[in-house]
Amino acid sequence: MAELNLKQITDKLNAEFVGDVRKLVFWYDANAEFQEDINTIELENAKVLYLEPDNQFYIKYFLECEDKTTNYLIYAPFPKPNIRENHLFDTIQYSKEFFADRASLLTVDLGIDERYKPVIQHYIKFFANKDRIQKFYDLEIDNFTRSSIEVALMSVLCKSKTCSFEEVLRVIITDDDFVDNKYLQEFEKYDLLEAFWQQADNNFGYNDAKPTLEKLVITMFVTYIAKAIRTDVPQAWKPFVSYKSGNIIAFIDNLMNSYIYGERYDEIADKVFNAINGDKYFAKMEINDIVDCNIFSGIDKLLIKWMIERLEQEDIGAKLNNKSIDELCLQQRKKHYGKRFKNEYFVIENAFAIISSGKYHPISGINNVLKFYLNEGFKIDRRYRYFYYHLDSIEDTTAFEKVRELVENIYTNDYLNKITVNWNTEFTSAGGDTGLRYQKNFFANHINNAKERTVVIISDALRYEVAHTLYEKLQADEKCISSLNAMQGVLPSYTPLGMASLLPHKELSYTDEYEVLIDAKPCATTEQRSRILKNYKVNSNCIQFDTMKNMKRDELREIFTGQDVVYVYHNQVDARGDASNTENEVFTACEEAIEEIHTFMRRVSSLANTHHFFVTADHGFIYKRDKIEANDKISFKAKSASTGQRYVISPDAINEDGVNSISLGRVLGNKDDRYVSYPIASDIFKVGGAGQNFVHGGCSPQELLVPLLEVKVERGKKETTSAQIALVSLTNKITNLITTLDFVQTEPVSDVVKETNYRVYFISDDNEKISNENIIVADKKDTDTAKRMFRLRFSLKNKKYDKSQKYYLVAFDDKNDIEIFRHEIVMDIAFADDFGFFG
User: Fold this and answer.
1) Which end is more exposed in the chain, N or C (fewer Cβ atoms within 10 Å of the end residue's Cβ)?
2) pTM for this structure?
3) How would DSSP label each residue in 251-309?
């Protein structure tokens, strides 16, 4: 469209030069509007002469003496001089003058009503550049008014591709600072500054005798606060409260929830928080009044502080807005600052679970203790693991120190010690038999008669609760079918005997030097284990995980092709935990192990045509963050013993308080008359060794219960669907600018129903967004429909709504931007005009 101006001018000029009589046409372009375009004008019967203020005599001489026959357009990119200074005045008298009014041409080209020509003329300086003109055309505005024209000019200067004042403001505040803003400087250059502040008033109700960008943004945030909190804003903030809260809430929500500009929003919000002394004023408010205001990180900090104080007092019944502390953590993690404070909220949530449920009460019967641990007890270990996993990710943990001490005390004294004592009491009463299948029978039970190639991943010290987290991850993987059980491990619960138990054997035994043998052969190295495995399965192999994890497809296929079974030894947890300088990283190692094993199975399935896996371990472990004092360790005397912090193998049972023993022959199934002794509680023996936080070898459910995770990775992909949402509220009419609606997640998340994010908001019939945008994380796993219901709050823009027009509530799948539902709504809202009157 930008070329239409020039085409009109070219047509008019060519019309001037029709005929055989020589013609001269003077064009004084007073504002040099067409200086860049003059070379592109194609004249059919004339040439162009360029007139400059200092070459008038030459042009006069040329036209009247040198070339008296050719038609010429004499173009001058300056105003026509007065008679005294115009040496071509007499020539002009017998020639013609041409006038090109760019404002008129633009209004014609764009289809702008003639009454808005003065607006174009007012900003004519803007239109002196072809690139700016083209970008103005590209906005494709349908309905021109003074407001839309001015917003379009701002949009071009802000390099926005849509004509929207909200987008103009977004660019201004996210792409530069509040002071000496480059866009406002551009607006001033083209006389748009006054128009900008008028738009700020029209759209967001900001009116100030001396307006600034900082005060505009503060007005928007304070107005949002006034609607989000359950009390009055401080007197100092009241002058900043705007009457156009709907527009403001929609703008801030959209900016805050933007994946592109979210980080810049955080910077702006922090600036505003400091400017309004947010720390001072919010601290004076009741926490219950501000919990729903999620626009400042400072409010999350206050909420975190409140929850920490409740936990320190063991006030597990504390609630805000009828939500318990763990429910608040879940709620806040889904809000804007959930990512920034993820670790803090997880620390609090896990601490809450331990404080509220971590006090163990003894149970009679080993079967009942076992059932409790496999169904509920392991969750306390997992809570403890994730408490420290997230605590260690926080740079400054000073605020959590008292909570940490409380968690450590409850976990160690009220849970771990008590369940271990209970376990060992019932374990001894049951003759050392839990009723589970034995780890030492693993090969006979699961591998010997396998009908397809099987990979056995033995992850050193992958205790049951960690394997359960891996199991849950596999349950969410549409290509994996998995089941989790437990096996009774061996005593001592340590690597030499645990690894041997998982291999095929006729006999397990110890030498006099306490070396473990399989069928009288050593089995400590990968090569030794591989030779033993081949004695039972010719087509088999043993290999270390670390030698395989970076292999390419052909290398992987070479390892697995033609094999019936492959044992893969993975050592992430034990390697980190057994070293004194890294034992406090063991929970990080657990997370890495889960990810590595999952990725490895998917990779082997895809690249090496192997789909059947077992994931198990040689033993588990106990971990406590606080070190045991020397006087709390168990002293003992034993001759020719093999010792560890949680076990002693010796010719005689250790006869000390707090120690149990079991015949080594009972464990191995032979006539070995030596004994394995172990602490009844979670204590350790007074022996030399590496770390004291991460230990194993004893008889606790954490050490002795070995996971058995069977996984089949499907060759084809299982069909999955996204978790859907639906509107519950039976409403067809909206009568208020602020409205709440109820929704439901139609199905629980499962292995075939995937967690999904949605964006929900209101739009007009021409797709204008007229409300704030709510983000829904559809991740609920509850089978009870009532527990999958939720309520969303919408703030609609202050504008006039036509009851005869169509409006819609829409939801979009956030991942692929597909509309998943559209609900037609009638807007029956009285419009509050700029003076507060309703129309």
Assistant:
1) C
2) 0.81
3) HHHHHHT-TTTHHHHHHHHHHHHHHTTHHHHHHTS-HHHHTT--S-HHHHHHHHHHHHH
